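User: Fold this; tokens only.

Assistant: Input:
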Amino acid sequence: MYIMLCGYPPFNGVNDKYITEAVMEAKLEFPIEDWYCISAEAMDLIQNLLTKNVKKRYSVKQALKHRWITKNFKNKKVSKKIAVKAFKNLKNFKFASKLQ
């Protein structure tokens, strides 16, 4: 979900060592230039899904009951603005992965 919303993985680095360290640190950032049109509710869900502490991390059941999911996917419609941005981000991520 993180990649779909912003176009890159939540924990990144120049090589596997740095990526592993970033995952272990589990510090999420939401740079304004990438997240300006993403709601606080969506970011809250992502933070709860990527929480380092397993006991505090959301389960699938909790995620499906999160306000962002229930509010935005009740009628299974996604705003065109979000859908276009998500598609573009996935496309860019796929291309970037090939380059690496």
